[in-house]
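Following up on my earlier thread - several people asked me to post the actual chain instead of describing it. Fair enough. Here it is, all 101 residues.
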Amino acid sequence: MGWWRYWLMGDLGQQFDIGDLRTDVMSLRSQLRSETRTAGRGVEELRRENEELKLTLAAVVRLLIRKRVLAASEIESLIAELDSEDGSFDGRLDSPIIPPS
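Reply from S.P.:
Thanks for posting it. Predicted structure:
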């Protein structure tokens, strides 16, 4: 109500407005905490999945090197080639995994 409460009820109306605002702020804080917890769980799940993928990739790469299917230098060269496909060396692959034929 704001100005109407203040105009009609003076300081008492202003106190009601302050109380309403406090209630709104507490509700928003609670909602934010809840959403932050949910997002935090999603981030942690992604972090675990990323670590699992890194472990699996490391195992495959080391196995290829150990069995002399590929040399470490060949893998490093291919990584650099793939990284540069999008025009920048940023440690990301923005192109398709399997190139178009």
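Residues 3-50 form one domain. That should answer part of your original question.
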